[in-house]
Amino acid sequence: MRTTLQGKVAIGFVLAGLGLVFILVVQIRYITGLLNDSAEVERTHEVTRHFDRLFSLVKDLERGHRGYLIDGDPVYLVPYYAAEKAIPQEIEKLEQLVQDPAQERRLRAVQPLIEQELAFTKESIRLRDEKGPAAATELFQTGKGLLIVRQIRDLATEMDQAEMQLLADRSAKERRGARFALIALGAGVILNLFVYTFLFYLVRREIRQRDTAEEALLEAEERRKYFVEHTGDIIYRTGRDWVFTFVNPVVETILGYKPDELVGRSSIDLVAPAWRERVAKF
Question: CB of 62 within 8 A of CB of 129?
Answer without folding.
Answer: no
